[in-house]
């Protein structure tokens, strides 16, 4: 059986997904770039990508995308689970529907895609799944519990899969980047509670400060370059023995150690200084 090198990348309309699709195509790999709306990625054809519609929250859309790649290449050689978004807000403020949508996009969509591509990978005894985690899956940022919960869950998913599929030649890679210079952080406000309400709620100050903190971390030289992450994905897919985890940036490398050394009370005191709740 010929081993497929085709790569399916989710969430390619901007940021890390777009940069990754371009980098993979430049590396000579058959690259299928996907997004919910084809018009947002039509220009990626010029970069050498195949483009396909894929809504990671829709079962039939997931199935069509995987089947399209398998029909041409026999299997998905590598899956890059990149699609996702963040929302800022106190847990009490987040409507149940918004919380469920966060999990459907960031967690359950990637899980189902893993389940769909694994039979083909096992059959060819080769494959790579790259999950885009976050430093928020290591240390929870202020007022970002919903997003962090999905990224903590991706940590567990990657750990479980790595052990389960290793006997079949399938590698699981988890990227844990800090804030990235994309539209990701600037889109946080669109998913935040209404901060202009006539009577602000009890978490108004916390949410406002958390948004400002997230935007600062992702701005200018403080944020990671999407192309930097894209090249790490390419190297991981090409490597014979990629690392299980890639902690990228100061937030991912330093914050978990500081958090552990300080303990809960001291760490909470630090958070109150950098992101006042009142």
Defining key terms:
278 residues; alpha/beta; Rossmann fold; seven-stranded parallel sheet; 8 helices; globular
Short characterization:
The protein has helices at 15-26, 59-73, 96-124, 145-165, 183-186, 204-217, 226-238, 250-274; strands spanning 7-9, 31-35, 50-53, 78-81, 127-132, 170-177, 245-248. With 278 residues, it is an alpha/beta fold.
Protein architecture, described:
- This protein is an alpha/beta fold and 278 residues long.
- The protein has one domain: NAD(P)-binding Rossmann-like Domain (Rossmann fold, 3-Layer(aba) Sandwich), CATH 3.40.50.
- The protein has eight helices and seven strands.
- It has a seven-stranded parallel beta sheet with strand order 3-2-1-4-5-6-7, with helices on both faces.
- Strand 4, helix 3 (96-124) and strand 5 (127-132) form a beta-alpha-beta unit.
- Helix 1 crosses helix 7 (226-238), helix 2 packs parallel to helix 3 (96-124) and helix 3 packs parallel to helix 4 (145-165).
- The mean pLDDT is 92.
């Amino acid at each position: 059986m010929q081993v497929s090198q085709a790569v399916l990348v989710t969430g390619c309309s901007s940021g890390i997904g777009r940069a990754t699709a371009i980098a993979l195509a430049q590396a000579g790999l058959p690259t299928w770039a996907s997004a919910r709306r084809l018009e947002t990625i039509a220009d990626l054809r010029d970069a050498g990508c195949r483009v396909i519609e894929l809504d990671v929250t829709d079962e039939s859309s997931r199935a069509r995308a995987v089947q399209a790649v398998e029909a041409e290449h026999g299997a998905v050689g590598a899956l890059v689970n990149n699609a996702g978004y963040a929302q800022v807000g106190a847990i009490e403020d987040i409507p149940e529907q918004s919380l469920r949508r966060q999990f459907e996009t960031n967690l359950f969509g990637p899980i189902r895609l893993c389940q769909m591509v694994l039979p083909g990978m096992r059959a060819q005894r080769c494959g790579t799944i790259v999950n885009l985690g976050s430093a928020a899956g290591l240390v929870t940022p202020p007022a970002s519990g919903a997003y962090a919960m999905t990224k903590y869950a991706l940590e567990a998913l990657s750990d479980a899969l790595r052990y389960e599929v290793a006997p079949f030649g399938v590698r699981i890679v988890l990227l844990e980047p800090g804030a990235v210079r994309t539209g990701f952080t600037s889109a946080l406000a669109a998913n935040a509670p209404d901060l202009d309400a006539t009577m602000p709620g009890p978490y108004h100050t916390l949410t406002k400060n958390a948004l400002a903190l997230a935007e600062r971390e992702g701005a200018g030289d403080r944020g990671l370059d999407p192309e930097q992450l894209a090249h790490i994905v390419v190297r991981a897919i090409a490597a014979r023995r990629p690392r299980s985890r890639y902690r990228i940036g100061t937030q991912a490398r330093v914050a978990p150690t500081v958090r552990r050394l300080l303990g809960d009370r001291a760490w909470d005191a630090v958070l109150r200084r950098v992101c006042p709740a009142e």
